[in-house]
Amino acid sequence: MGTLLELGNCTLDILQDLVGKPTNQLVASSLQPESNEQPLEVRQATLIARQTLEAVFVYGVTQLAMWVSKPEPEISSGDVDIDDQAMEPQKSDPARDRRAAMPSLTLADRLRMGMTGEIGADLQALLTKAKPIIAKSEAVVGTKVVDLTQVLSNFLRERVVTPT
Fold it and tell me: Is 54 part of a structural domain of the chain?
């Protein structure tokens, strides 16, 4: 996920640079004069960067959603941490009884739960930061293209980061 976020940030930086340039400007010209390849214009590069950014967003949101929806491992009686003292008859302490019956989470589960919120927040911030730049890119591209950022942002907020 960290790699996807970094790729998204880098692509967003490129897109931001491209939307500030004139649309007919060349980004890269052919290195060989005899080549039949067309040089890359700002419009084409903007469209490519935008498609790449949207792909990163789709992959990032779906990967995080799959990570969150991963079923929790079933806890067998051997996985529950119960003190030997809890097995001996003593005065009933309701708070202690609840603690003794609660399964302990593995380190991996605790990390996954903590990292999900952090990664979700980073991905949400990237989506929010990209929204105005993607809107500017429509002027460069020249055609109305569906902006997925709001749809993905809503899905991330409602279904992944704060599931009900």
Answer: yes
